[in-house]
């Protein structure tokens, strides 16, 4: 379930201000307060907001999990490490891979220090930093652009275009959440566009997703599950969702043999 432009704007205001009022939004968008109340209901259902009489506040969960990488990385750290370790089954030395800026993908870096002939293309400053003191580690290609310190990544139009210079054996992606969606999501529209471009340049697209992401939604869906080759997770808590996903994408659970080992 993708948010419309008004709902996305309201979410961005929530993140920026912490509180938004239905009367103000009704005037700003020339819609009824009942329409704004329905927007609040949806944002609350997706886990982004807490609805009150006449106003809404950003949810504590969304504040913790979506705003910056330093905050996200310690959350569900054990599960993320297990998922990252399972992702190693797909990686071979002497290949070129892409790693995005997702917190679970960042955990993958610590397992790649001995891949001396591997080339990693990334926009993640955290992944680059992981190899700072590794003398014979992988070759790192950091895509250029402006620096976003909250997400610890770079981004620019040049980045978007330079992606097409590469062909990736695998591309590893994170997701903000998957509930109410038919594919992985990002919290920033532009980030989603870059992921779409990378996916077109990759022979194998792999989404890394811990179990908490199945309980929350995202803002921008950047792919359908049919465009993803694998989903690696520590578990899917909802049986109906589990059955649905397993019919759309190859799901690999931590501890399960992949056949790539």
Automatic annotation (TrEMBL):
Repressor of the lactose catabolism operon. Galactose-6-phosphate is the inducer. It comes from the Bacteria. This is Lactose phosphotransferase system repressor. Coiled coil: none annotated. The keyword Iron-sulfur does not apply. Residues 3-58 form the HTH deoR-type domain. SMART domains: DeoRC, HTH_DEOR. GO terms for molecular function: DNA binding; DNA-binding transcription factor activity. PANTHER family: GLYCEROL-3-PHOSPHATE REGULON REPRESSOR (PTHR30363:SF4), HTH-TYPE TRANSCRIPTIONAL REGULATOR SRLR-RELATED (PTHR30363). PROSITE patterns: HTH_DEOR_1 (PS00894), HTH_DEOR_2 (PS51000). The lineage of its organism: Bacteria, Bacillati, Bacillota, Clostridia, Lachnospirales. Keywords: DNA-binding, Repressor, Transcription, Transcription regulation.
């Amino acid at each position: 379930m993708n948010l419309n432009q008004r709902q996305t704007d309201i979410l961005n205001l929530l993140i920026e201000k912490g509180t938004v009022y239905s009367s103000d939004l009704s005037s700003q968008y020339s819609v009824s307060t009942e329409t704004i109340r329905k927007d609040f209901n949806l944002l609350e259902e997706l886990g982004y907001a807490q609805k009150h009489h006449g106003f809404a506040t950003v949810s504590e969960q969304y504040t913790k999990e979506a705003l910056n990488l330093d905050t996200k990385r310690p959350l569900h750290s054990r599960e993320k490490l297990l998922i990252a370790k399972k992702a190693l089954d797909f990686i071979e030395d002497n290949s070129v891979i892409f790693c995005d800026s997702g917190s679970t993908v960042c955990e993958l870096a610590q397992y790649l220090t001995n891949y001396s002939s591997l080339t990693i293309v990334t926009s993640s400053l955290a992944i680059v930093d992981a190899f700072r003191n590794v003398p014979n580690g992988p070759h790192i290609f950091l895509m250029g652009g402006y620096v976003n310190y909250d997400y610890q990544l770079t981004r620019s139009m040049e980045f978007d275009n330079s992606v097409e210079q590469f062909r990736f054996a695998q591309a590893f992606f994170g997701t903000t959440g998957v509930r109410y969606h038919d594919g992985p999501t990002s919290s920033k529209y532009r980030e989603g566009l870059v992921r779409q471009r990378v996916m077109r340049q990759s022979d194998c697209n792999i989404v890394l997703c811990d179990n908490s992401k199945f309980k929350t939604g995202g803002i921008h869906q950047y792919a359908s599950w049919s465009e993803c080759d694998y989903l690696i997770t520590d578990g899917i808590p909802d049986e109906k969702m589990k059955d649905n996903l397993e019919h759309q994408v190859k799901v690999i659970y931590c501890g399960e043999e992949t056949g790539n080992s």
